[in-house]
Write a structure and sequence with these properties.
about 140 residues, mainly alpha, two-stranded antiparallel ribbon, about 45% helix, binds zinc ion, zinc ion binding, nucleic acid binding, HNH nuclease domain-containing protein, HNH_nuc
Length: about 140
């Protein structure tokens, strides 16, 4: 049998705690619960709009780790899930279109397409776009 080291979905530490496959300590487990609840709320919102919501907790946790659980735009506090391409412009809730954001950046973005946003430097928008493209491709690989 090959021993596969389990790593915490929140902080990426090796898990030695209890029987958990996803969290290294109580605090991390609670954060994952909160995110799983957040995704459920987005699923409901998507369902009402008759739009797809394919985001999975593991995928979202990987994006959160990438941005160190901070706002992807300004590195401020992570307060909300932001649709990079706004829902009103056809953006769906899936790994290739979601990043953590603070409320200030989310308000600054508004309902603009990424290339239309002026309140956040385009350099930052482009870096995020590249990251999301990469996630998009790796999520396709997993489902094949
Ligand atoms: Zn942890
Ligand atoms: Zn921000």
């Amino acid at each position: 049998m090959v021993y596969i080291e389990k790593r915490c979905w929140v902080c990426n530490k090796v898990i030695t705690w209890g029987q958990s496959d996803t969290a290294c300590k109580l605090q991390c487990r609670d954060r994952l619960y909160a995110e799983s609840y957040r995704i459920e709320r987005h699923k409901e919102a998507s369902y009402i709009r008759n739009r797809p919501c394919r985001l999975q907790l593991g995928e979202w946790a990987e994006t959160l780790r990438h941005y160190k659980w901070r706002c992807a735009f300004c590195k401020g506090p992570f307060e909300s899930l932001d649709h990079f391409v706004p829902v009103s412009k056809g953006g769906a809730t899936w790994v290739g279109n979601v990043v953590p954001a603070c409320l200030q950046c989310q308000i600054a973005k508004g309902n603009l397409l990424p290339q239309e946003v002026e309140a956040i430097p385009q350099e930052i928008m482009e870096r995020i776009a590249l990251y999301l493209q990469r996630r998009d491709r790796s999520s396709l690989k997993q489902t094949q």
